[in-house]
Amino acid sequence: AQSVTQLGSHVSVSEGALVLLRCNYSSSVPPYLFWYVQYPNQGLQLLLKYTTGATLVKGINGFEAEFKKSETSFHLTKPSAHMSDAAEYFCAVSDPGGETSYDKVIFGPGTSLSVIP
Amino acid sequence: NAGVTQTPKFQVLKTGQSMTLQCAQDMNHEYMSWYRQDPGMGLRLIHYSVGAGITDQGEAPNGYNVSRSTTEDFPLRLLSAAPSQTSVYFCASSYGGGISPLHFGNGTRLTVT
């Protein structure tokens, strides 16, 4: 079964600084990968996804992520943090079904991003 | 568009009580799922469904029951509530199973005393 790790349960950056949120997955085959964002008291929203093709994926709000198969990583970056980026960020991976189960999505534990003015 | 609608938003139960969390989507998605969110643990998959009449267990199914009689609705039943089920519950749907982006509801915050 797939698993996802996110290094750092809490990350603080200054406004205007680079944002880097780390995600690693366990898989022997290229998976489908996602980043979701959760603002306080809301559900999750899709930031970006990787399926196949270009390994650098651009998402909403200036975020992007790079799929690195050799490192089994899918780190999320943004060149310049804004106060409105403060939220919880979740990396997720599709877990393909087998003979007795179906595709499902497995989430990492999340990283809380704080932006310091 | 309503998207994914969850009711109720908040619920307090006593240990041993049962209840049903409702989830409905109006996007004609075949795939629907229930997650619980606990601090430091991210989202854990409880149950999911790939279409009417087809359900399967996720990582944390114990104490929960589901059925899927229509494409639109996917209720989650707590059979006998326990304090360990205090959590925030999210319903999500997608058009293509685990390979497609999930659309989330706004969650149900459940407290079991």
What does this structure look like?
- The complex is a heterodimer of chains A (117) and B (113).
- With 117 residues, chain A is an all-beta fold.
- Helices cover 0% and strands 50% of the residues of chain A.
- Chain A has no helices and twelve strands.
- The radius of gyration of chain A is 14 Å and the shape is globular.
- The mean pLDDT of chain A is 90.
- In chain B, 0% of the residues lie in helices and 51% in strands.
- Chain B is mainly beta.
- In chain B, strands 2, 4, 5, 6, 9, 10 and 11 form a seven-stranded mixed beta sheet that branches.
- Chain B is globular and about 35 Å long.
- Chain B starts with a strand and ends with a strand.
- The interface between A and B is medium-sized, with 29 and 27 residues.
Which secondary structure elements does this structure contain, and how are they paired or packed?
The complex is a heterodimer of chains A (117) and B (113).
Chain A lengths: L3 E2 L4 E5 L4 E3 L2 E2 L7 E6 L5 E7 L5 E3 L5 E5 L4 E6 L8 E9 L8 E4 L3 E6 L1
Parallel strand pairs in A: 2-12
Antiparallel strand pairs in A: 1-4, 3-9, 5-6, 5-10, 7-8, 8-9, 10-11, 10-12
Chain B lengths: L3 E4 L2 E4 L5 E7 L5 E8 L3 E10 L2 E4 L6 E3 L9 E3 L8 E8 L8 E2 L3 E5 L1
Parallel strand pairs in B: 2-11
Antiparallel strand pairs in B: 1-3, 3-8, 4-5, 4-9, 5-6, 7-8, 9-10, 9-11
Quaternary organisation of the protein chains: heterodimer
Largest sheet, strands/sense/barrel of chain A: 6 strands, mixed
Topology, number of strands of chain B: 11
Give unreliable regions of chain B as ranges: none
**Outline of chain B, from the CA principal axes?**
globular
Please tell me how large the radius of gyration of chain A is: 14 Å
Specify the helix fraction band of chain B.
under 10%
Most extensive protein-chain contact, per-chain counts = A-B, 29 and 27 residues
Return Rg of chain B in Å. 13 Å
Mean pLDDT of chain A: 90
Task: Tell me the number of helical segments of chain A per DSSP (H or I, 4 or more residues long).
Answer: 0
> Approximately how much beta-strand content do the residues of chain B carry?
over 45%
Question: Hey, roughly how much beta strand do the residues of chain A contain?
Answer: over 45%
Total strands of chain A: the figure is 12
Mean pLDDT of chain B, nearest integer?
94
Structural class of chain A: mainly beta
